[in-house]
Amino acid sequence: MLQRYRLPMLIVPLLFVLVSSGLIALCQPLGARAASDVKVQYRGSGGATAQELTPWLRIVNTGSANVSLSELKVRYWFTRDSNATVNVACDWAVIGCGSITRTTGTLASPKPQADSYVELGFSSGTVNANSNTGEIQLRIYKSDWSTFTQSNDYSYDASKTAFVDWDHVTLYRNGQLVWGVEPGGNTGPTPTPTTPTPTPTTPTVTPIPTTPTVTPTPPPGNKKQVVGYFVQWGIYERQYYVKNLVTSGSMNTLTTINYAFGNISTSLRCYEENRAGWGDSWADYQRSFQASESVDGVGDTWDQPLKGNFNQLKKLKARYPNVKILISLGGWTWSGRFSDAALPANRAAFVKSCIDQYIKGNLPQIDGDPAGGNGAAAGIFDGIDIDWEYPAMPAFEGDPSRGIPPNTYRPEDTQNYTALLAEFRKQLDEIGAQNGKHYLLTAAVPSGVDKIEKIQVNSFSQYLDWVNVMTYDMHGAWDAQGPTNFQSPLYPSPNDPSTGVQKNYNIDFAIQQYLNGGVPAGKLLLGVPFYGRGWTNVPNQNNGLYQTSPNMQPAPGTYEQGIEDYKVLKKLAGYTSYRDPITHSYWLFNGSTFWTLDDPVALKDKINYLKSKGLGGLMAWEMDGDDGTLIQAIHEGISG
What is the rounded distance in angstroms from the CA atom of residue 357 to the CA atom of residue 384? Predict the structure, then answer.
């Protein structure tokens, strides 16, 4: 019982007389009840100052009866720190953002730590007895993108890095305060003591929407998504292991890791095999890593049910539980059967096979190796990334030496691509409904307008949590005689000699095509390369830029001609660096060899651009090209 409700003994008889005579009626203070069976738990994120406030909330029902969410409202209290309009977005919610209403309000009498609040309401759904809603991730930002000083905000607490009860976020039921303390001291009832309610393994809140409505928020400390591709084959010549994501400092910035790639079999199924050019089950889950190569310093044993990169990702996930891990399907070489798999008669079975293998974790046991089996990889992947290169367009020309044919494509790919994404979304939601989890679905999409035109830009993104735009590889030494040009220019240049559709090969044009087509800005991630592309025998004119010559050819590279990792390029001797102020591009030239690449300055220019456009973040291809320099530049740019 709260002390402030006790009355001095001398006035109790008087009150009894007045009440019994009908002269007055006793009224409880706002929200007072004998005990509260619903409360709010909070998880803080972000620093003392931030462009966006990103609280995570969940409602817990400690009672024995279900509670209709439509009866509840939640308030998060803060200071505006300016006169700019405040907006609020729901970036991700287990119960679905579509059922959550979001409004902002101001206090008539501002308090020292609060002059405003965000109020959440619910149009549908139930929080079951002895359960919770699952997390609700908010993003509060101002119209002019000016910063908040959230260290002075009533509801903010940086020390709460995991969900805990927090009475500075208030909860109302049918208009009555039932949990928390409002700024200035209005107090709800004392909750019935309970032990913390664990997050259930089966859905506890209904309904779960069949399509996502917004982009999930990254872990605390980041304002944007930062996705990095980790490639299956990097463990060989490059000796880049999952462990290197930790030792390079990349895990301080990454919000999502896309593991590249999964292939499609001749029977149009997601599958594994150990055959050069077709599959690498050895790298995925059969190779034993030594202690020195392992994320946790513990080596594998030969008889483990899970080894290889998958086991290292599992260990990484245990250490960084907020980072999402997705399996990426396709890529340049393994997109050849998407067109067949996406046909109406094939797509449902194809999608089911991918979910069975990567989400349920049912891996085949191959070549007598004990690794694999039912559920061996369960719990590793938080979703699926589709990298179809490209719908309704020719791309990979095949590899006759390994018996790999060219990519199949057909005009119907345009509609079938959208339908395939819809089928993935449907089946991911179905399994998510079984275990109370939202599985992510993303796609890597082209930046060339000729390829963008083959996608139903006005509709495909509704099925995706976000879209990775491959804003690189716009120019390269496949055009061996040139002209030398930038592989990832931010803006066009009047000096660019390109013709036809290539005249529009720049980031701003590509992003605008998706925005004009109706893709929400917050779903678009700008792609950046962790490698450079180059030519040699380049005429020594204009510092090597925009040059052509019949003698030109791809520049020598460590692993492949015409391409080189950033970590190698940054150490080249005898080169002069240049920067183009029009395209915001960077290049190296030594009088004969020209390399186009992104350095930390170019990356920060791109981060400033994506912030100005309200984009959801960026994606990097791929992590083994960096030595920690570029990801640190991203960290500084995203956090700044």
Answer: 11
